[in-house]
Design a protein that fits this description.
The chain is of the alpha+beta class and about 425 residues long. It has 4 domains: about 5-180, Ribonuclease H-like superfamily/Ribonuclease H (Nucleotidyltransferase, domain 5, 2-Layer Sandwich); about 190-270, 3-Layer(aba) Sandwich (GIY-YIG endonuclease), CATH 3.40.1440.10; about 285-345, no CATH class; about 355-425, no CATH class. It is built from 15 helices and 16 strands. The chain has helices at about 50-55, 60-65, 70-80, 90-105, 115-125, 130-140, 150-165, 190-195, 220-230, 235-240, 255-270, 315-330, 340-345, 390-395, 405-420; strands at about 5-10, 20-30, 35-40, 85-90, 115, 200-205, 210-220, 245-250, 285-290, 295-300, 310, 355-360, 365-370, 375-380, 400, 420-425. The strands form 4 sheets. A 5-stranded mixed β-sheet has the order 3-2-1-4-5. A 5-stranded antiparallel β-sheet has the order 15-14-13-12-16. Strand 2 and strand 3 (about 35-40) form a beta hairpin. Helix 6 (about 130-140) packs across helix 7 (about 150-165) and helix 11 (about 255-270) runs antiparallel to helix 15 (about 405-420). The longest helix is centred in the middle third of the chain and has 18 residues, at about 150-165.
């Protein structure tokens, strides 16, 4: 019996990981030769769709208003993917989204998983990029519906067809009986980390001498750590051979996890991390003055050598923020200084003095960030509501953070796009 592949693509609302919703899903059941079944539908996410996502995908709230909600399609997805390998381009993202949706229903969705990105890198070496667009161009795969579930999933089917033909070792078909290419299976740390499936925090991989080899963060720590030990590429296997211990630091707050990861990477410089791992926010907002210097506008571009005034996670985030500032903050003013522009942009999101509240590590606990004079001073985990105010007790509980524009950018990203609560003081 041939292996069945459930080739899947999802479009989402955008927003903070763990709180996103699916807006569209396409599933093509592929037997290695032809598509034997398919399911394509818009999905009502029951939450807002980020403006930049609407622009990217063309999926609007009006389009999904009458679409089925995820519980209405859940049974069909379970039945269709049962016994099949879950395949996607950047599978960790699509798999996490589907798992999150099922998790809200109290259902533990588990499938063998195959990511076409590392497979393409192994079987089609030498390309400058392995994004789906780049692969479609390099392999002459047609995709007339880019950034829509139907188009991207169909293109991934064709990519998988090519990869299967190139895989002379037949390792892909072997996935049906060999868990090593998937995200399931056991390894030497399985029992230690099994309780951390839905845990948010930072993890550290150590060698036998106590040196940190790798630092990462996730809101699903078990799945993220599993991937290190179930991957089969050369670098992953080298890391597996060296790791002697795993340490997990729960944060509750994804924003705090990103901050602590950044600080650990700078301080520890683990050999298996890439330099870019330090920066989850890879884009920056820069000021471009007008010719006469009396006004200007904001430009959003990748951060390289020039330090931005504000870091953002995506180009769309920065453009949306700049457009909001242009439309609502200074609609009738034609002249302003650069500092006035930055102050007004930041005021849209975070007062100069504020407490920012996020999820804690357990029920009843809150992660609190203290901002004063537009600087992030530190964080604390608070149990009592009476401590959720800028007093001496909270000040004494703070774990101080270094003055860092990047860490402040992580906090602003969490406030503006992650839904963190702000209390001005």
């Amino acid at each position: 019996m041939s292996t069945l592949y459930a080739v899947i693509d999802v479009e989402t609302t955008g927003g903070k990981a763990g709180e996103e919703g699916v807006t569209e899903i396409a599933v093509f059941l592929f037997d290695g030769h032809e598509i034997v079944d398919q399911f394509i539908t818009l999905v009502n996410p029951e939450r807002p769709i980020q403006p930049f996502v609407q622009q990217l995908t063309g999926i609007t709230p009006k389009m999904v208003a009458r679409a089925p909600k995820f519980p209405e399609i859940a049974k069909r997805l379970v039945q269709m993917t049962e016994g099949a390998v879950f395949v996607a381009h950047n599978a960790p993202f699509d798999y996490r989204m589907i798992q999150d949706e099922f998790g809200r229903l109290g259902y533990d969705y588990e499938r063998k998983t195959l990511d076409t990105i590392p497979l393409a890198k192994r079987l089609i070496p030498g390309l400058k990029s392995y994004g789906l667009d780049a692969l479609c161009t390099a392999l002459n795969i047609s995709n007339t519906s880019r950034h829509r579930a139907d188009g991207d999933a169909r293109a991934t089917v064709e990519l998988l067809r090519i990869l299967l033909a190139k895989d002379r070792e037949k390792s892909i078909e072997g996935l049906a009986v060999d868990q090593s290419l998937g995200v399931r299976g056991d390894h030497k740390f399985t029992q230690q980390i099994k309780q951390y499936r839905d845990t948010t925090g930072v993890y550290y991989l150590y060698n036998a001498q106590g040196k940190v080899l790798y630092v990462g963060q996730s809101d699903r720590l078990r799945n993220k750590i599993d991937r290190h030990f179930l991957a089969t590429n050369e670098k992953a296997e080298a890391l597996q051979n060296e790791v002697a211990a795993v340490q997990i630091e729960e944060t509750g707050s994804w924003t705090l996890a990103k901050m602590l990861e950044n600080l650990a990477l700078k301080q520890l410089q683990p050999p298996y991390n890439k330099p870019k791992d330090q920066y989850n926010l890879g884009m920056g907002m820069y000021w471009v003055p007008s010719e006469d210097g009396t006004s200007g506008t904001f430009d959003v571009r990748p951060v390289h050598h020039q330090k931005p005034r504000v870091y953002v996670q995506r180009t769309g985030h920065g453009k949306d923020w700049a457009a909001s500032w242009q439309a609502h903050i200074r609609p009738n003013q034609t002249a302003w200084t650069e500092n006035e522009a930055w102050e007004s942009l930041l005021d849209m999101t975070l007062p100069a003095r504020a407490l920012v509240l996020d999820k804690g590590r357990r029920t009843g606990e809150t992660t609190v960030f203290w901002v004063e004079d537009r600087k992030l001073l530190g964080y604390a985990w608070v149990q009592l509501a009476s401590h959720l105010q800028p007093n001496d007790v909270l000040c004494n509980q703070l774990t101080k953070l270094p003055d860092s524009d990047y860490l402040m950018g992580v906090l602003l990203d969490g406030v503006r796009w992650g839904g963190l609560e702000v209390r001005a003081w």
